[in-house]
Design goal:
The complex is a heterodimer of chains A (787) and B (108). In chain A, α3 packs parallel to α4 and α12 packs parallel to α13. Chain A is 30% helix and 20% strand. The longest helix of chain A has 20 residues. Chain A folds into five domains: 139 residues, Dna Topoisomerase Vi A Subunit, Chain: A, domain 2; 191 residues, no CATH class; 144 residues, 3-Layer(bba) Sandwich (FAD/NAD(P)-binding domain); 47 residues, Alpha-Beta Plaits; 153 residues, Rossmann fold, CATH 3.40.50. Chain A contains 23 helices and 34 strands. In chain A, a hairpin with a 5-residue loop joins β20 and β21. The two termini of chain A are 29 Å apart. With 787 residues, chain A is of the alpha/beta class. With 108 residues, chain B is an alpha+beta fold. Chain B has two domains: 63 residues, 2-Layer Sandwich (Alpha-Beta Plaits); 45 residues, no CATH class. In chain B, 13% of the residues lie in helices and 28% in strands. Chain B has three helices and seven strands. Chain B is globular. The chains are: A alpha/beta (787), B alpha+beta (108). Chains A and B meet through α19, α21 and α22 of A and α2, β5, β6 and β7 of B.
């Protein structure tokens, strides 16, 4: 309530060109309302007020005649902004205006007769007036924030986004579970389409980190706990020991020279020796990997790292020789707490474990490798004559991954091209179901097809068996010609798909972010692809689904864009957030459960409290509260109740039903509005209220409306899966079903409460719906409470 | 007569420690059972104030009219608005009467 301030309302009707006065009797309306309580001025404006009329209104405000305004008519957004700013200079808060568009409710044009339309307009103005009386002056809220961001995962998406955020002057914390940055991309050898080295692009991003003093990189680290909201996240991380001091090591490599332990390559245990790279065989000029070695996969940070589990007991060779005393063999795991304004997850992907695809013998036969392992072989191949590539190994297969990883075809083509470049004589067989090369990747396909001895076979091998001299015997049916091929291959490459990385799964649990059926982070596709249900936490890159490098960098940048408002000293919050009336609340926690963004937490007394930064002001908590203790500040439940109470359709005969519709402002309201604009006949006995989400409709409001004698209540929300607030439409559907059952017990027809899904351009359907609902209600007869 | 709980509808307020009916009951008679549904633990002590019926957000509770006033077919059902209450009274013969009140005082 507005407290002791008595509302002095200025009611102005804008009617440029006399559109309204053709449909309704404006003079009668003005006469009626100038005598109404709380109205201290009522006038028809022939032009938009800021053109010439605002002078006298401003004077009225200065003289204390008005302290709030009700504007009737259709105002363009620009005009609204101008009026609001001019009057706020005179001291009227911009939340003390109510805008009532009669035309969107169906008034105007050549609809029903003048007196009926006038009556409807009077009711609509009365409803708006009831709300205007209860308006409160509000100010946007300022929350303290910090200009720092945490990026989890220093892969290609994380590194490039970190660089961009540094350019914007933000402080960046980067967390990486490996000893060095670069992620999966750094372990690749070549990138399509230019068949270039991925380290080259990553190096550019690393140089930005090197030069900046606003970046903090934590390698060998994992997040153990996240709490807080936008502007004040507190993230606990656990750092595994590196055994080398980062600030001291200058990567001279003396230690690796004396280290007695040579590491076998764990990644390729089954590979025949002849396939191993010269470095791994310990021949040639490159040195093998030792227990102390540069950071992996890219040597940034430059400090070395020790794989302590391979160290012989009591060996201190590296510590002895280190010229800078950087080796510290007795390091312990450490913990750190990071305070940031927002969190971006770029936790990436893992290759699908191909040993699960048993029929291709991965892990059983030497010579069967995955496409990630093929990267290094294709770059420096041993002598090979016949190589096979199996596409969709475990992908698009309901026993394994029921989706297409979208990049494997292009990767295989890249590897074929690279292999042919290195070994022009090699014969490549590509066994495929469909070649999928979206966009410009098609060029790779054309290029590969034009090469000699590159054979595309449409079919998946039925058996893979070991043959003579370590070769592989393959049987495959070419489904185009129907012939069976028996091939002897030196090497078989399985194009496995992408799954969310282990880190992604952990983060999904830690931050309670929803994932889709495949374990990738879910979002509101396609409007907000990087949307997450935790305000201030966003997901970017391939933890959201299979994608190529360019898409992953784009995606993480897009996600970072969404975080920018939280990366300031001050976070602005629209004052339409919900407030809780704690004297009414009895801690039932329904608001906490139904909030799609987990914005509520328990305060010291066990009451729900709101994290204003996380809240997106959908009002679902207002809709669910069984005690009506929650209200959005600019759309309070009292204001809605007052509007419903003001809806007294006495001009409509009792046989004619009256409908009150609650329309979701995202989809259903625009549909209704455009229906009126398109000139569809909207019956005069339909009134609607705009709500931020169908989920914000409280059952008590519906009960009110029925108790005041309205015959039908229509609640219209978005289509399933299209709700802008995840599931507000489903929640209100459950609630209205509950109410309908109650009505049945009360011997009132349950059809009097109806829930519908409407899309934004369903204006024709809206009109049809309203007419058919009226028809249904006519059959039912009047609401027993109607008098 | 104690309140009857519709076990299909009652969600035990999602098995919170105290469901709303337990919090509101002036005699502290309702509580959650093993199956996380509300039940009245002392039927004889209930004096039909109907507070639990009014507050249940799922509409899962129902009280019967005491036999001194009407036989078991008779029912009294409240529906709560923001500051309105609507009573539906159905008597033995199925005659329906309705009462609609606006609560005094404001919402807050």
């Amino acid at each position: 309530m507005s407290g002791k301030i008595i509302p002095k309302i200025g009611l102005f009707v804008s009617d440029p060109g006399g559109r309204l006065s053709r449909a309704i009797d404006l003079e009668t309306i003005v006469q009626k309302f100038s005598k109404t309580k709380n109205i201290s001025g009522c006038e028809i404006l022939k032009n938009f007020p800021s053109g010439n009329g605002l002078g006298s209104i401003v004077e009225g405000v200065r003289a204390g005649r008005f302290n709030r305004f009700l504007w009737i008519g259709r105002f363009p957004p620009e005009e609204i902004k101008r009026i609001e700013s001019e009057l706020s200079a005179a001291g009227i808060n911009r939340y003390l205006h109510e805008w009532c568009d009669l035309e969107e409710q169906g008034i105007g044009g050549d609809g029903p007769p003048l007196d009926v339309q006038t009556q409807k307009a009077i009711i609509l103005i009365q409803m708006a007036l009831a709300r205007t009386r209860l308006l409160e002056a509000l100010e946007p809220l300022k929350l303290p924030g910090v200009a720092s961001v945490l990026l989890i995962g220093a892969g290609t998406a994380g590194l490039h986004t970190a660089g961009s955020l540094l350019d914007l002057g933000k402080k960046v914390y980067l967390i990486e579970k490996e000893s060095g940055v670069g992620g999966k991309v750094a372990s690749l050898r070549r990138l399509y389409p230019r068949i270039c080295d991925p380290h080259c692009g990553l190096e550019l991003a690393i140089q930005k980190l090197e030069k900046s003093d606003r970046v903090e990189l934590h390698t060998l680290s994992a997040v153990t706990h996240i709490q807080g909201g936008p502007g004040n996240f507190e993230v606990k991380i656990e750092k595994r020991p590196r055994y080398v001091k980062e600030g001291k090591c200058n990567a001279c490599g003396e230690c690796a020279r004396v280290c007695p332990v040579t590491l076998k390559d764990e990644a390729l245990p089954l590979l025949r020796d002849s396939f191993r790279l010269p470095m791994e065989r310990g021949v040639g000029y490159s040195s093998p990997q030792k227990a102390i070695h540069p950071a992996d996969p890219m040597a940034y940070p430059p400090a070395f790292v020790i794989d302590r589990q391979f160290c012989p007991p009591d060996c201190r060779e590296c510590a002895k020789i280190c010229p800078t005393q950087a080796v510290e063999l007795e390091q312990n795991p450490a913990e750190a707490v990071i305070k940031v304004g927002a969190v971006l997850l770029t936790t990436g992907w893992d290759p699908y474990p191909l040993s699960k695809v048993e029929e291709f013998g991965y892990g059983l036969y030497p010579g069967v490798v995955s496409n990630t392992e093929m990267e290094r072989i294709a770059d420096d191949p041993p002598d090979l004559q016949e190589v096979g590539f199996i596409q969709c190994a475990g992908s698009r297969d309901e026993r394994h991954l029921n989706y297409c990883s979208s990049v494997c075809c292009s990767i295989t083509l890249k590897q074929v091209l690279r292999l042919k470049e290195k070994l022009p004589g090699v014969r490549c067989h590509v066994f495929y179901q469909d070649m999928r090369t979206p966009g410009f990747d098609e060029e790779l396909y054309q290029q590969a097809k034009s090469l000699d001895q590159v054979i595309f076979v449409r079919g998946t091998p039925s058996t893979v068996k070991p043959g003579e001299d370590g070769k592989l015997k393959i049987r495959v049916e070419d489904t185009f010609s129907g012939t069976e091929l028996n091939l002897q291959l030196d090497l078989l490459v399985l194009a496995g798909g992408m799954i969310p990385s282990e880190g992604s799964r952990q983060m999904a649990q830690l931050s309670r972010l929803p994932v889709n059926g495949y374990g990738f982070f879910e979002s509101h596709l396609p409007c907000h692809p990087e949307e997450s249900q935790r305000t201030g936490i966003r997901t970017g890159g391939s933890c959201r689904g299979p994608m190529n490098i360019a898409q992953s960098i784009e995606s993480s940048h897009r996600a970072a864009m969404d975080l920018l408002p939280f990366l300031n000293e001050v976070i602005w919050v629209e004052p339409n957030y919900p407030v809780l009336n704690l004297t009414k609340c009895d801690k039932c926690k329904r608001c906490m459960e139904e909030c799609p963004y987990s914005s509520f937490y328990f305060d010291a007394n066990g009451f729900p409290a709101l994290d204003l930064g996380k809240c997106r002001q959908c009002g679902i908590c207002m809709g669910v509260c069984p005690l009506q203790a929650i209200s959005l500040r600019h759309l309070t439940i009292q204001q809605f109740a007052a509007q419903i109470r003001a809806l007294k359709p006495s001009f409509i005969p009792k046989e004619e039903p009256v409908i009150l519709a609650f329309l979701c402002q995202n989809d259903a309201y625009p549909a209704a509005k455009s229906a009126a604009e398109a000139g569809f006949a909207i019956p005069p006995n339909v009134f609607f209220l705009k709500v931020p989400c169908a989920g914000a409709v409280n059952n008590a409001l519906v009960a009110d409306a029925l108790a005041f004698g309205l015959d039908g209540i229509l609640i219209a929300g978005c289509q399933d899966g299209q709700c802008h607030f995840i599931k507000g439409n489903q929640l209100v559907k459950i609630r209205s079903d509950d109410l309908a059952e109650k009505l049945q017990k009360m011997v009132i027809e349950p059809q009097r409460v109806r829930f519908e899904n409407l899309e934004i351009r369903d204006s024709r359907r809206y009109v049809h719906l309203v007419h058919s609902y009226l028809e249904e209600l006519r059959r039912l007869g009047p609401n027993p409470f109607r008098n | 007569m104690p309140p009857r709980v519709d076990r299909e509808k009652c969600d035990g307020c999602r098995a919170e420690k105290e469901p709303l009916c337990e919090q509101i009951c002036p005699g502290d008679l309702l509580t959650l059972g093993e199956d996380k549904r509300a039940f009245c633990r002392a039927a004889r002590d209930c004096w039909d104030c109907m507070s639990c019926v009014k507050i249940c957000p799922k509409g899962a509770l129902e009280t019967r009219v005491p036999y001194q006033l009407g036989y078991h077919v008779a029912r009294l059902i409240p529906m709560m608005g923001t500051n309105t209450i609507t009573w539906t009274l159905i008597d033995l013969n199925g005659k329906v009467e309705r009462f609609h009140y606006i609560n005094r005082g404001s919402l807050d």
